Amino acid sequence: MAISSDLILIDGDSVPSCRSYDVRYEKVWSSANTNMAGDVRSALLGVNIIISVEFGGELLQADMTDLLPKLRQDYFGVTFYDPETDSVKTAQYYVDGYEVSLLSKHKGQFNPIEIEFKPVSRSA
Fold this sequence. Notes:
The structure is a single chain. By secondary structure, this protein is mainly β. The chain has one domain. The protein has one helix spanning 61-72, and strands at 8-10, 18-29, 33-34, 40-41, 44-55, 59-60, 76-82, 87-95, 102-104, 109-110, 113-119. Strand 7 (76-82) and strand 8 form a beta hairpin. It is elongated.
């Protein structure tokens, strides 16, 4: 079945074309301890939903002027498709860093940009 919604929005705005979209579910555990029998004792606190996206194909200067200021914010709202629940979710995210690579100065084109969105708070 096709996915009818946008894969990702930043602060409610659409973003340049998505070339790849990956979702990683990272479990967050309390302090783990191993007993003498080698058994691990820990409690699952929640799951971080980390989203990796490659924007591009043909990124123009206008796309970068729109996208990059959003990514420079400390935190921002991300609405994303969650394949686990087949639903759209919204949460606060941040980005550690990203690299911008110029493809053609004369055409104002940029290479695709890879972004990893990390949640401010873990999911329950």
